[in-house]
Design brief:
Layout (H helix, E strand, L loop, with lengths): L4 E4 L11 H12 L6 H4 L7 H12 L8 H21 L9 H10 L3 E5 L4 H11 L9 E3 L12 H10 L7 E5 L2 H10 L3 E5 L6 H4 L6 E3 L4 H6 L1
Parallel strand pairs: 1-2, 1-4, 2-3, 4-5, 5-6
């Protein structure tokens, strides 16, 4: 296999979401007086959450002077608090169908597995711990959007995962995600394969305009693509 590293997204790609991220985003915005629907949030899934909050405020706050770093920070802090509480207490936290089997098969074939996310590291770490992906030997690396200077679609997270894996050629890397910014992140990093999945916030029709190398309905198809 020419692929040495595969970078998977979390919510909507490998982890079952059920709109909880969008619901929580809406709740955090609501606390500060902004009525944002799940439908408004979904196009911003995958972005680093401070960026998503800023974009949403520019849509819902007519007075730009009110869109301050403090307001953005306050909403982001509320989002993190709500998300951590949810993932700590959720009675059911599941991987998406075939995600664990796919990662296991790829890992057993000698491919390094990285997880990156628009979540901050503290949220991502709780999910990984509850799913026991390290204990199961499914992943090698985890990076949150707050660990790099720029979040998606900037390639910084993929670049850092490549450095951890000792991979210097992006032609030996595949990116798998469910959103527009996952696709653009993979393209900006120069990944050989940029694989979009329809298990998250975007439909096939919504993913097609961003020209991923592949669009799949089942994450297990990643194995056939890279073979």
């Amino acid at each position: 296999m020419s692929i040495k590293l595969i970078v998977f997204d979390m919510a909507g790609t490998t982890v079952k979401d059920e709109d909880k991220v969008a619901d929580t985003f809406s709740a955090a915005m609501q606390k500060y007086g902004y009525h944002v629907s799940v439908e408004d949030v979904n196009p911003l899934m995958g972005y680093e959450k401070s960026i998503a909050i800023t974009k949403m405020l520019h849509q819902h706050e007519p007075d730009n002077d009110k869109i301050t770093p403090q307001l953005i920070s306050n909403i982001h802090r509320e989002f993190i608090s709500l998300m951590i509480s949810y993932y700590q207490k959720a009675t059911v936290l599941e991987a998406l169908p075939h995600a664990e089997e796919t990662m296991a098969a790829l890992h057993n074939a000698g491919i390094r597995i990285g997880i990156n996310t628009g979540f901050s590291k503290d949220i991502a770490q709780i999910i990984i711990e509850r799913l026991q992906w390290r204990e199961k030997g499914l992943i090698d690396y985890l990076i949150g959007s707050d660990e790099v200077e720029k979040g998606r679609p900037d390639p910084a997270m993929i670049n850092q995962l490549m450095a951890l894996a000792g991979v210097t050629d992006p032609g030996e890397v595949a990116k798998v995600g469910d959103t527009e910014v996952d696709i653009r992140e993979g393209q900006n990093a120069g990944c050989k394969y940029v694989i979009a999945v329809t298990t998250g916030a975007f439909t096939r029709a919504q993913l097609e305009p961003y020209n991923p190398t592949h669009i799949i309905d089942d994450i297990a198809d990643v194995i056939n693509i890279i073979n």
